[in-house]
From TrEMBL, chain A:
Places the protein is found: Periplasm
Species the sequence originates in: Paenirhodobacter populi
Protein name, per record: Lipid kinase
InterPro entries: ABC_transptr_urea-assoc_sub-bd, TAT_signal
Keyword Kinase found: yes
Family that this chain belongs to: Belongs to the bacterial solute-binding protein SsuA/TauA family.
Pfam family, one: NMT1_2
Top-level taxon of the source organism: Bacteria
Signal peptide: 1-25
Keywords for this protein: Kinase, Signal, Transferase
Taxonomic classification: Bacteria, Pseudomonadati, Pseudomonadota, Alphaproteobacteria, Rhodobacterales
Main location: periplasm
Residues that span the membrane, as ranges: none
Automatic annotation (TrEMBL), chain B:
UniProt organism field: Paenirhodobacter populi
Organism superkingdom: Bacteria
Lineage: Bacteria, Pseudomonadati, Pseudomonadota, Alphaproteobacteria, Rhodobacterales
BP terms from Gene Ontology: transmembrane transport
Keyword 4Fe-4S applies: no
Protein name: ABC transporter permease subunit
Membrane topology: Multi-pass membrane protein
TM region positions: 12-34, 82-106, 113-135, 141-163, 202-225, 237-258
Domain ABC transmembrane type-1: 79-259
Amino acid sequence: MSTRRSVLVATLAALSAFALSPAQAQTKTDFKVAWSIYVGWMPWGYAADHGIVQKWADKYGITIEVTQFNDYVESINQYTVGAYDAVTLTNMDGLSIPAEGGVDTTAVIVGDFSAGNDAVILKDSDNLADIAGRNVNLVEFSVSHYLLARALESVGLSERDLKVVNTADPDMVGAFQTPDVTAMVTWNPMVSEILALPGANNVFDSSDIPGEIIDLMVANTAVLADNPDFGKALAGIWYETAALLTADTAEGAAARAAMGAASGTDQAGYEAQLTATRLFDQPADAVAFVTSPALETTMDHVRTFLFEKGLLGAGGSSPDAVGIEFPGGTVMGDAGNVAFRFTDTYMKLAADGAL
Amino acid sequence: MRLVNVRPDRTVRLMLGLLPFVLLVMAYVIGSAARLAENPNDKLLPALSTLAQTINTLAFVPDARTGNYILWTDTLASLTRLAWGLGISTASALVIGLVTGILPVARAALAPVVTFVSMVPPLALLPILFIVLGLGEVSKIALIVIGVTPIMARDLALAAAALPREQIVKAETLSASSWLIACRVVLPQILPRLIDSLRLQLGPAFLFLIAAEAISADAGLGYRIFLVRRYLAMDVIFPYVAWITLLSVLIDIGLSTLRRRLFPWSEMAR
């Protein structure tokens, strides 16, 4: 009888095999990193293709498999269910997807912040206030949505004054050319293409809220705690590649051309996007950024936005449900449920040349 | 007794039919419990109680921002698009199918183009539709029409052509005109096939609808799934998938009943 029951249990266990097990915290040597195409994340792909990842992984005696995702959201979802140890994402998506989903996540590297890569674009008007009453096409709940909320705040409007229409990002450029689309919020490379069209006006962009849309490389906190070498290797890869990327040499130009080609543009197009990006190629700058009090203000804006949209602390009555830890140990929100952490540990090691 | 001769009675049949569903639910519950034990905030396989709570919020609690009941607003938006798309498809397929089925001249003119169009993968046309027709309702309905009409039209033309030639000759000896033959001999006999054809196209029609809603919309079943996918909100996605499946099954049963009521004689042909 008991045998039969155990057969049944085994069958059910097999059936439930689709329940992937979350990333297990233990010492290990094989790591998986996911990234997707964006100006500030192209260095990861370049580093993987040009042996920089291999070099740093070998130095710490580990292997790092770097996978490019064509779909940004899918890469975050795969990280959240535990299929990857680290992923590239923005501060807002890191808080609302893995952290809200109970996956304790640490920002290993602050790679850059958007300083113009995200923009609110109006047709036939250069006054942001004219957005009132229009249909606004954007990817709902993305950083575009956040940028719109911040833009509306700046002119005393709210989302009630307009109508948001969810539109997929690959279709933005085409959509802007149809007559019924008159307002749009999107990011580069679409922004530069759309602004080149007649009648398109940039009325608000991320350089108006500097340092609020931050692009990170995050890793599972438990994996990182058990394997600090993984974090060190990531920092080593990033700063070596970033130095190459910003170098005013033939090698630097070749790297920018390669990253431009990989993101569907060319060297000039990629360099134009870089000017709208505050890239942290010096670890000391990133350490200063992540330890400044401004980051706490930013995260408070972000979590309030997410809470108002029902994306954070679901069912709770305040955005405090998910705790956010800053370097030095300050916690914003529930200290018993810290799931999103900023740290300067690895960037500091890079700044001190201790990698 | 040989296995091929074992016939389960009604009760056993019912139980055997339910077994796969029960196993699926049990596998889900076990998987969900295992994941939640490890991480209480896990979103991939929410507990049944979470699912029930979310369904309640979606269906019976007005949305704080808009005051709408999300599930019903989405369902209404999607079913309206589906009804327009399938309505236009059915009407045009009937006309094209009838004409090409009985008039050799029309067949010569239309059959190649209908065959050609039916081979165009509709989803590949989506970017073009959005540019030409805008992001509004028209492009979504057009996608359904383009995807479904040619196949239904070809199906009906085949059904019309398969009618015994003797029937047409007989009607002619009774001095019926082409118009009368079309209306009184062919049309009644292909109408049951039209309904069956529509039933078979329900699946593809939903596929096109969801694909179009995923790209640009402010309400709809496909819109919601692709919106909350961003937040791995499986507690919304699972009920929506089940709801879409249930809607399809209900529409299918409804159409099947309609055919039996309207054309009871067509049952004998099977």
